[in-house]
Amino acid sequence: MSVSGSELLVAITGASGSVYGLRLIERAAPLVRRISVVVSRAGARVIAHEMGTPFDLEQPSLRAFLGRDPDNVRFHHPDDLFAPCASGSSAPDAMVVVPCTMGTAARIAAGIAEDLIGRAADVVLKEHRQLILVPRETPLNLIHLRNLTTLAEAGALILPACPGFYHHPRSIEELVDFVVGRILDHLGLPNPQARWGEE
User: Fold this and answer.
1) Which end of the chain has a smaller Cβ tally under 10 Å, C or N?
2) Extents of the domains making up the chain
3) How far apart are CA 93 and CA 33, in angstroms?
4) What's the CATH architecture for 7-187?
């Protein structure tokens, strides 16, 4: 499936690894018609901690992280259940939860839509659109594994943030881009990253 020319929803939750979500937005913005972004309250706190710059849910901006605010990126507050992506009649073509906390995964697996991220994920699944979850947790306990299995059985793709090393990464950015590149692959978007067997 390709979302090129379509709408992508990116949700950033409170797991460590907010850089994955920010980098995905940066890489995907030139490739799709529109990106909707929802950052959870915990996600905003983790962005501030890991990136060293506050993220304001009331006046969200990517300028401090990407150097600009892409024209085709729009934000939705996590409490805004009137956002278009909360309805099946306006479901995005694909949704990526990156990084995805185990709590978020559990609520989606149980059909508990207490905020816009959970509701949008529920909508994406019920409308048979593409849902990609990028957990950044280790080790995984049995509850985590069962929730992820339930989500996979419901049609979600589980894509853990596990970078490879066969491309001889020399920076954190290259490790981040490896994971983001795999997400782009599954969205059907161009990914210039090195592949196994390629120099």
Assistant:
1) C
2) 7-187
3) 11
4) 3-Layer(aba) Sandwich (3.40)
Q: Are 188 and 2 in contact (CB under 8 A)?
A: yes
Q: What is the pLDDT of residues 157-177, one digit of tens each?
A: 999 999 999 889 999 999 999
Beta bridge partners of 11: 38, 97
pTM: 0.95
* Interval 21-68: pLDDT, tens: 999 999 999 999 999 999 999 999 999 999 999 999 999 999 999 999
Residue position matching structure tokens 């339930």 = 150
> What integer pLDDT is reported at residue 6 of this predicted model?
87
Token digits of residue 147: 């929730």
